[in-house]
Amino acid sequence: MKKYNVAVVGAMGAVGKEMLKTLERRSFPINELILLDVSSNVGKEIIFNGKTLEVQEAKAGAFKDVDIALFSAGEDASRELAPVAVSEGCKVIDNSSTWRMDDKVPLVVPEVNPEALRSNKGIIANPNCTTVQMVVALKPIHDLYTIKRVIVSTYQAVSGSGQKAIEELENQASEYTKGVDITNSVYPHQILFNAIPHIDTFLENGYSKEEMKMINETHKILDPSIKVSSTAVRVAVFRGHSESINIETEKPINIFEVKDVLSKSKGIVLIDNPEQKIYPMAIDCKDKFDVFVGRLRVDKSVENGLNMWVVSDNLLKGAALNAVQIAEKMIEMDLV
Questions:
Q1: Cβ–Cβ contacts within 10 Å for residue 176, how many?
Q2: Helical packing angle, 129-145 and 255-263, nearest 10°
Q3: Are strands 227-235 and 195-196 parallel, antiparallel or unpaired?
Q4: Dihedral, CA atoms, 93, 245, 210, 167, nearest 10 degrees?
Q5: Contact at 8 Å (CB) between 55 and 11?
Q6: Distance CA 49, CA 31 (A)
Q7: What is the pLDDT of residues 129-154, one digit of tens each?
Q8: Which of 61, 73, 146, 311 has its CA 20 to 30 A from that of 250?
Q9: Are 151 and 245 in contact (CB under 8 A)?
Q10: Up-side HSE of residue 61: CA atoms within 13 Å toward CB?
Q11: What is the pTM of this model?
C-alpha cells in the first residue's frame, strides 16, 4: 500500500490532538508525520505510534514534501497558510470556517457528498461540527422522501469552544462545591447548571453565526432547496453535541422504513428503544466515530413530518474524524 507524508497543522490544539489519535486509530497509511504549530509550541513533543516527534513551526517551506495537510489552527492560519501549502504541492483539508462557503472549495462529508472532492483545487473544507452530524442523519431520509424543511435546535458541549471552556466548566463545578462565587470569562454567563442560547456572534438577521453556518452549509452539502431554521445552544456538557431535528418531507413517511434505512446507513448507529430508556446521549458518544440517532417519531402537526434526536462526538465526527475520512476518501478516489 502506498504511504503518504502527512502534516497536522495546529497539532497541539484539542482538535489537532484528536486528528493524531484518529490517524493512529484508523491505521492511516503514513510514511512521515510532520507536526506543525505556532512558534511558541516548537520543540514540544508528541508520541505517535510509539515514536516521539517534535513540533515544528507552521510556515512557508514546511509543506514542500507533504502530500496531505490537516489544518486545525484557526481561521487566520488557514487563510494565510493553506494557499502556501497548496503552492508547495500539498492537499489541504481545513477544519476552520475560512473556506467553507468559497464557491471554488468543496465542502465535504464523505457519507453525503464524496463526489464534490473531484472539483478540488487543493483545498477541501471540513464543515462545522453540528452540520456534519446533522447531514449524515438527513442524507438517507432525503434520498427516500425528499426533505423540504428542517428545524434544528442544538445542545452543544463546551469542548466546541476549546480547552479554556472545558476548564471554565470544571472550575465552576469546583467553585460551586466550595460554596464560593462562580466566575466566568469564556462565556458571557455561567455555564454550570445552565443553557446559553448564544454561540458565536449575532448577526443583523437575529441569528448567530453558528446558526447561519448550519443553514448555509446544509445547502452547500446536501440541497440548496431545503429550508433550514437553526437555534444553537451551549450546555453544561464536556463533550458530545446533541440535536433535536424536525423534518418535513415531500413524500409520506413510513417510520419503519426510516428506521430500517438508518440502521443500514454507513456512519450511523440507530439507538431507539425509549420504552427501555435506550436512546442516544452525549455521555455515551465520547471517543466513538459514529453518528447516533434515536427518538424517531412521526410529527403529526404537518402532513409529512418526522422528529429525531442526533448525537455525536463533536471533536471526532464533528472535526478530526471527518477530516481524516476526507483524506481516506481522496486516496480511495486517487485524488492525492
A1: 14
A2: 130
A3: antiparallel
A4: -90
A5: yes
A6: 12
A7: 999 999 999 999 999 999 999 999 99
A8: 311
A9: yes
A10: 2
A11: 0.96
156 DSSP β-pair partners? 234
pLDDT at residue number 69: 98
pLDDT at 254 over 90: yes
Domain with 233 in it: 131-314
Q: Other C-beta atoms within 10 Å of 143: how many? A: 11
Q: How wide is the angle at C-alpha 164 spanned by C-alphas 162 and 165, nearest 5°? A: 70
CB distance 256 to 180 below 8 Å: no
Contact 298, 306 (CB under 8 A): yes
Q: Which of 90, 189, 219, 241 is catalytic?
A: 241
> Could you say which of 90, 129, 142, 285 is catalytic?
129
The CATH number that applies at residue 297 is: 3.30.360.10
Domain co-membership, 231 together with 249: yes
- Tell me if 30 sits within 8 A of 6, measured CB to CB: yes
Contact 321, 93 (CB under 8 A): no
CB atoms within 10 A of CB 197: 12
- Give how many domains the chain has, as a whole number: 2
pLDDT tens-digit map of 27-63: 999 999 999 999 999 999 999 999 999 999 999 999 9
Same domain, 163 and 272: yes
97/220 Cα distance (integer angstroms): 13
Distance CA 174, CA 163 (A): 17
Q: Give per-residue pLDDT as tens, 62-112.
A: 999 999 999 999 999 999 999 999 999 999 999 999 999 999 999 999 999
Rounded average pLDDT over 4-16: 96
In this structure, what CATH number is given to the domain that contains residue 31?
A: 3.40.50.720
pLDDT of the residue at 1: 84
Residue type, 93: I
